[in-house]
């Protein structure tokens, strides 16, 4: 019907209605409508969509997610290609070379922008996932990159089938012989994809976790988990890149449990000189009783010791007989009470002061407790304050720290005068 209308229109213009002129008119109409469609979609509809997206309460989120990723723009190009293809099938001669060429080009155009629409949609979902706690902890970037890689391979096969005019099923059946080659070429992406799924399913790692992996020199916060690599920003601001599959095959330490618990462990020792360990004298007891922290402990222990010695008829004239208080045991009791009353020690977590095996470096007295914060700077300040106090009170109990002689100690030694008159 449109051919007759074009023939009549060309006759009125005194133009011979040949096949060539009809083809030129048809192509002109296709191009004209394509231009009009482009102007309507990109200058009118797109502006309206931007205004609608910017009128809500989450303006910045949707504007960045939908329009900076160019999702609507790519969908518009697919609509334009569909309109061109429909026009070509309606206006051009069936089976003509021109129709075949336009159909092939529009199909390739639709395939290309379909893949780009998928990419944009995945990028939008990845960006929006950062606003949800449930999805923010998942390594979605690696999974989405795997989907992108798969879609590119499928699109390439379909594009070849369009160009040669064969069914894509035939090409897919022929890929079986190339499976080994494909597995070799895409070994790292495939292993990374599997590793990313395992990390996500088992909740082993997510962006923001503190990861420590000494084999790769990594000790810092995870900033990115993608298809093939995991990026860790170390505490010295350097970046360490780790293969994703290495997190499955090798061992690593994730400090997320510590961060979520609300407490960070203190496990540090002071070494006491063995020669300074002794029984408390009456003067020592009278002096230590003045401490409000130690007074209840000393009174309780003195009562227990006196009852035991009296019940067993102990001769206290020899220090080898009976039970007595030691300065080291009293020091441990003081530290226990001190930690229990410290405002920055977590009261719900394990806390103790223990004596470790004596070595050539002295008797280790270890403080094992948890602070009520996981912030690194606060933790270090709390730990330093505690051990500042510990080092300062050690002499009060008649104890000495063990330390190797320094150059200052050597210089204090006075050699005897061997000169003769």
From TrEMBL:
It comes from Nitrincola lacisaponensis. Keywords: Cell inner membrane, Cell membrane, Membrane, Stress response, Transmembrane, Transmembrane helix. It comes from the Bacteria. This is Mechanosensing system component YbdG. InterPro entries: LSM_dom_sf (IPR010920), MS_channel_C (IPR049278), MscS_beta-dom_sf (IPR023408), MscS_channel_2nd (IPR006685), YbdG (IPR030192). GO terms for molecular function: mechanosensitive monoatomic ion channel activity. Gene3D superfamilies: 2.30.30.60. One of its GO terms (cellular component) is plasma membrane. Its main location: membrane. It is found in: Cell inner membrane. Residues 334-392 form the Mechanosensitive ion channel MscS C-terminal domain. The chain crosses the membrane at residues 20-41, 108-126, 146-164, 170-186. It is a multi-pass membrane protein. GO terms for biological process: cellular response to osmotic stress.
């Amino acid at each position: 019907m449109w051919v007759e209308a074009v023939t009549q229109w060309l006759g009125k213009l005194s133009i011979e209605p040949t096949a060539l002129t009809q083809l030129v008119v048809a192509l002109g109409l296709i191009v004209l409508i394509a231009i009009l469609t482009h102007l309507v979609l990109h200058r009118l509809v797109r502006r309206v969509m931007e205004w609608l997206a910017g009128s809500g309460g989450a303006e910045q989120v949707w504007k960045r997610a939908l329009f900076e990723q160019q999702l609507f723009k790519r969908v518009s190009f697919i609509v334009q290609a569909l309109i061109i293809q429909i026009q070509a099938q309606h206006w051009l001669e069936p089976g003509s070379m021109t129709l075949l060429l336009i159909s092939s080009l529009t199909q390739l155009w639709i395939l290309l922008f379909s893949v780009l629409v998928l990419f944009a949609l995945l990028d939008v979902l990845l960006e929006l996932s950062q606003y949800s706690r449930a999805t923010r902890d998942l390594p979605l970037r690696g999974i989405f990159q795997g989907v992108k890689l798969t879609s590119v391979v499928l699109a390439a096969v379909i594009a070849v089938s369009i160009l040669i005019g064969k069914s894509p099923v035939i090409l897919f059946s022929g890929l079986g012989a190339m499976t080994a080659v494909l597995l070799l070429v895409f070994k790292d992406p495939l292993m990374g994809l599997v590793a990313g799924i395992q990390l996500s399913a088992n909740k082993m790692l997510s962006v923001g976790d503190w990861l420590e992996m000494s084999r790769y020199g990594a000790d810092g916060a995870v900033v990115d988990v993608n298809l093939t690599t995991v990026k860790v920003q170390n505490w010295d601001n350097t970046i360490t890149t780790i293969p994703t599959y290495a997190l499955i095959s090798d061992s690593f330490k994730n400090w997320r449990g510590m961060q979520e618990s609300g407490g960070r462990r203190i496990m540090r020792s002071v070494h006491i000189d063995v020669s300074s360990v002794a029984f408390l004298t009456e003067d020592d007891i009278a002096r230590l009783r003045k401490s409000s922290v130690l007074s209840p402990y000393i009174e309780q222990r003195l009562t227990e010791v006196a009852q035991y010695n009296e019940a067993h008829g102990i001769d206290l004239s020899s220090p080898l007989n009976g039970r007595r208080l030691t300065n080291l045991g009293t020091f441990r009791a003081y530290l226990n009470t001190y930690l229990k009353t410290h405002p920055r020690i977590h009261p719900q977590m394990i806390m103790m002061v223990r004596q470790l095996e004596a070595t050539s470096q002295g008797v280790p007295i270890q403080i094992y407790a948890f602070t009520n914060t996981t912030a690194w700077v606060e933790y270090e300040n709390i730990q330093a304050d505690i051990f500042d106090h510990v080092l300062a009170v050690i002499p009060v109990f008649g104890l000495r720290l063990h330390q190797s002689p320094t150059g200052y100690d050597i210089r204090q030694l006075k050699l005897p005068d061997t000169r003769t008159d």
